[in-house]
Amino acid sequence: MAQTPYEVLGVKPDASADEIRKIYRQLAKQFHPDLNPGKPEAEERFKAVSAAYDLLSDPEKRARYDRGEIDESGAERPPRSYYRGYAEGAEGRKYQPEGEMDLGDLEDLFAAFGSAGRGWRGRGGEGFRARGGDRHFTLTVDFVEAATGAKQRLSLAPEQWLDVTIPPGINDGQVLRLRGKGGPGLGGGPAGDALIEVHVAPHPLFRRDRDNIRMELPISLAEAVLGARVTVPTITGPVTMTIPKGSDTGAQLRLRGKGIQRKKGPGDQYVTLKVVVGPSGDPELAAFLEKWAPRHPFDPREGTRS
Fold it and tell me: What are the tens digits of pLDDT across the range 111-141?
């Protein structure tokens, strides 16, 4: 039996939105594929966690799931039928499924259509065509897949799947329309469409800014002072970047063409440096600074005083 979204995240059904968000961020960072290379089980766990959070982070979807109106994937559940609905038909007719149109209903419908309705009945239904209804789904995709494009398989029902192409650069909340993949038509009419609302899972390192990507990169004190060549993750794989000598926390470097992939051309990736001193209490470093600092006076807060 499939796990509920609450079980996937390990929270109680009455968990608050803040609690769900906190647990999701912990799990997303723990199982993110970029942090678990070569571990397909971590990738599957990450996708499951993202899908669960996508449903539970939306108050409307969460309420509908709790009421049993949608399933774990966000797909509509068929309405529940009860014996009473079958046992109490109109005008004494028995065993009519609840909500099903009976013959009397059809007569009223044909009367409303006038001659067109009579013609339909007279030909045994020939000539009556109606387009099938649209079907609505939600799909959560990984940040990198949304940025670069991918193919996903959406579960519609047991043993029923729909292959979805995610275009590069898709935005969170964007709706994809798959024509002819909705409900079947009537009388030979065309099928409806599948409308898929795409949600992009947050990434532990990257943040989207239009067609650009921003991230914060920790560097050591030695790398900041002396300069270095370091490996930086991007959505298309790791690259080597040069850190200039004397770089400060907050310094911003640009990697051209490493942003969101678009037909008009990719955006850029902006890397903000964050100097990390490392383990405190290093006696050698402390002794050096005690001699060096007095000979090189410097006030980093100059200009901040009123």
Answer: 444 444 444 444 444 566 788 888 888 888 8
Confidence band, pLDDT 50/70/90 cuts, at residue 243: very high
How confident is the model over 133-175, as pLDDT tens digits?
888 888 888 899 889 888 888 877 667 788 888 888 888 888 8
Domains of the chain (ranges; CATH) run 83-122 (no CATH), 129-203 (2.60.260.20), 207-295 (2.60.260.20)
Question: Given a cut of 60, is residue 249 above it in pLDDT?
Answer: yes
Q: Are 168 and 136 in contact (CB under 8 A)?
A: no
CA–CA gap between residue 244 and residue 139 (Å, rounded): 42
CB 70 within 8 A of CB 76: yes
pTM metric for this prediction: 0.55
Q: Which residues in 10-46 are b (16+ Cβ under 10 Å) and which e?
A: ebeeebeeeebeebbeebbeebbbbeeeeeeebbebb
How far, in Å, are 27, 49, 154 from residue 4 at the CA level?
A: 16, 11, 17
- Cβ neighbours, 10 Å, residue 209: 14
pLDDT at 208 > cutoff 80? yes
Average pLDDT of the chain? 78
